[in-house]
Amino acid sequence: xxxxxxxxxxxxxxxxxxxxxxxxxxxxxxxxxxxxxxxxxxxxxxxxxxxxxxxxxxxxxxxxxxxxxxxxxxxxxxxxxxxxxxxxxxxxxxxxxxxxxxxxxxxxxxxxxxxxxxxxxxxxxxx
Length: 127
Known about the structure:
127 residues
């Protein structure tokens, strides 16, 4: 498995300004099974209230709540099942229960056999 920093700087991912990089959290999930989290940056905890240890081995659906859009959830499923990159704006919930909007960029990471090994989710708060 590649270290998080190396995955987050994957050459196929879009470049970001220094300001965007400082605001953005990065989460890496397994591409198989239930897409469980394997790693996350410290910025994820700042945005969501969930420490890395709290989310390892869990699915990011734990951020969803009552007003999370069905259309956004369906778009996530479509991108993941079709091995595609894409952007989803979504209302999720902080660990405290407070709703927040963020833009999530999903990017599959392929192994040498051209199978999706990991999914990188880069999350940027939307003010």
